[in-house]
Design brief:
- The protein is mainly α.
- The protein has two helices and no strands.
- The chain has helices spanning about 10-50, 50-75.
- The model has no long low-confidence stretch (mean pLDDT about 80).
Length: about 100
Amino acid sequence: MTESPPPTRPWSAVGAGAAVVAACAVCCAGPLLAVLGGIGVFSAIGALWVPALAVLTVSAVLGVLMVRRRRRSACRTSGSSVDLGMPAPAPPQAKADPVHR
């Protein structure tokens, strides 16, 4: 008599999938809530006081421009070469070779 194969357990794959989803939710919940909360706060401020939204927009644009300008100036190189103060190598001295005179 042949033995039948053991029954498959699809619940182990479902359990692994649930563990992955739970780990993702634990990892990503904080940043997602922070972004959504920030959007909600700015929307509430904009709804209550419209000039605040304009001030926030202008300050954000100015901040981006300042950061870009600082990064460009930090990465800029000088156009001329820099002298490192190293001595020049001495020219090779001619040796008297008795064979090739």
